[in-house]
Amino acid sequence: MLFAIELKYLRLFALAVIINLLLMPKFVSGAVISADPTNYRDLIGGLQFGDTLQLAAGT
Q1: CA distance 31 to 28
Q2: Could you tell me which residues come within 8 angstroms of residue 48 by beta carbon, excluding any fewer than 6 positions away?
Q3: pLDDT on residue 3
Q4: Burial class (CB in 10 A: 0-12, 13-18, 19+), 43
Q5: Among candidates 56, 34, 28, which has minimal Cα distance to 46?
Q6: Which of 20, 28, 35, 46 lies 20 to 30 Å from 12 when distance is taken between CA atoms?
Q7: Is the dihedral of CA 31, 45, 53, 25 positive or negative?
Q8: What would the DSSP string read from start to end of 6-55?
Q9: pLDDT tens-digit series, residues 10-57
Q10: What are the respective helix, strand and coil percentages of the chain, to the nearest 5?
Q11: Residues forming a β-bridge with 34
């Protein structure tokens, strides 16, 4: 009986994980922000989770 209850919760947990993996990309997206050697320090503070700071070549 105890094994059946644990198996039930394991199935619910697996279902919840699958649903999260399918829905997460719709809610989490990041921006690609271009920067160069003159302004990258100013842009770092404004980055959000998932953003990419794309650095241009510089000297």
Answers
A1: 10
A2: 30, 31
A3: 67
A4: middle
A5: 34
A6: 28
A7: negative
A8: HHHHHHHHHHHHHHHHHHHHHH----EEEE-TTTHHHHHTT--TT-EEEE
A9: 999 999 999 888 877 666 678 899 999 999 999 999 998 888 999 998
A10: 55, 15, 35
A11: 54
Amino acid at 31: A
Cα 56 from Cα 54, distance rounded (Å): 7
pTM for the model: 0.48
- The four Cα atoms 36, 40, 42, 31 give a dihedral, to 10 degrees, of 100
Kindly list the domain boundaries of the chain, sorted by start residue: 2-55
Q: Determine contact, residues 38/19, Cβ cutoff 8 Å.
A: no
Tokens at residue 22, please?
């399918």
